[in-house]
Design a protein that fits this description.
The protein is of the alpha+beta class. It folds into two domains: 47 residues; 125 residues, Roll (Nuclear Transport Factor 2, Chain: A), CATH 3.10.450.540. The chain has six helices and five strands. The protein is elongated, with a radius of gyration of 30 Å. About 3% of the residues have low confidence.
């Protein structure tokens, strides 16, 4: 026993190393135990949720027409018009009870005075207690008409409507976007959902 005391007094670092190793092993064991419990909880929730219907998928009823960048890269006007229309419609159609009209404010600089007035006068009701929202993705766009200072673009979209129970409904909708060119800048003048 006297030899052990003498060894401990001679090498206090090795005692500290043992304590550090023990603490590290305990932390690793606790982390592994937490991971196992969390994984088993997630797995049991997935297996017990058999009453939820799968998301509804409705195939688009329209013939989606795509213009590849190779086709329009030689025409920067068409490229600009299509990109503006697709971006605008995606933002315009995406909203939730949590964003308080932020999507509409983002569109103001991209809009004519006529469209700005329309956006500012949209009656938003955010007093609801339950979450709801829509995510809109622009899938494709086709230029219906384009002249020097105006364009008409048809945008095909996918909309995902989410309710307070996180249930989603997917559907497809077209939007006709009318653009005008003011001082060499293309702006959206009107959006018509079809």
């Amino acid at each position: 026993m006297d030899e052990d005391k003498i060894t401990a007094k001679r090498d206090p670092v090795s005692g500290r190393k043992k304590i550090i190793w023990i603490i590290a092993i305990v932390i690793l064991l606790l982390a592994f135990l937490f991971w196992v419990l969390r994984t088993s909880d997630l797995g049991s929730n997935e297996n017990n949720n058999t009453n939820t219907a799968p998301p509804i998928f409705n195939a688009p009823s329209v013939d989606l027409k795509y213009k590849t960048p190779e086709v329009i890269k030689n025409n920067p006007t068409e490229f600009s018009v299509i990109n503006l229309a697709k971006s605008y419609v995606a933002r315009f159609g995406s909203w939730s009870t949590d964003n308080q009209g932020a999507n509409l404010n983002e569109l103001l600089p991209l809009s004519t005075n006529k469209m700005q007035n329309y956006l500012k006068n949209i009656d938003l009701n955010f007093e609801t207690q339950e979450f709801s929202g829509t995510t809109t993705k622009s899938l494709s766009a086709e230029i219906l008409d384009i002249v020097e200072d105006s364009a008409d673009v048809l945008v095909n979209t996918q909309k995902i409507v989410t309710n307070g129970n996180s249930e989603e409904e997917v559907f497809y909708q077209e939007a006709e976007v009318k653009l005008v060119k003011l001082s060499d800048v293309w702006l959206v003048d009107q959006v018509i959902w079809k």
